[in-house]
Amino acid sequence: MKANMSKRLVPGVLTAAAMMTAVVALPPTGATAEAAAPVTTLVFDKNPADPTRSTLSVYKGGVPQSKPFRAGSGVGLTDECVRNKGWIPNGNWKIKLKDKRYDGQFIKGYAVLLENMRCARKSTPRTEMFIHSEMNRDGSQGKSEARRWDGAGDYKSNGCVKLSPSDITELFGLLNRIGWPTHLRVVS
Fold this sequence. Notes:
single chain; alpha+beta; eight-stranded mixed barrel; 24% helix
């Protein structure tokens, strides 16, 4: 009788174990899967002492993914409501477009276009805001000052977030590998 009973239990135990393994091995679905996936975050931290020495950082799941990139915004003014001179306003800027061969009137090459946003006093809309550098459309250095990176003075911008050509190239490579964020968070 013991032999017959053990034969009946073993297949039932094996079947139960196989079903438990199948349930445990299933990948999460829906909101659970989205909550579990680490999110890429792009943060521009403005430096009030010197807006051309601000930083742009990349995080994935809250963990830094590289050294902070030196970046500038504006021509030295910390008033975010001064169009074409003041730095970029704080907030969450939606990323509308990313392009390695952007061909705008003033901005060429590696560029990230941000949504329009009003400044803190809600008085001045900040439009045509980018993360960009100085380069030709193909990413090479040009002959004119607007297309050629000459050094620290080139971190100045009309309010956009501006990086060196090598840093924006590195940024694009990193984000292409780990996943692009949907927004740029600007803080000071």
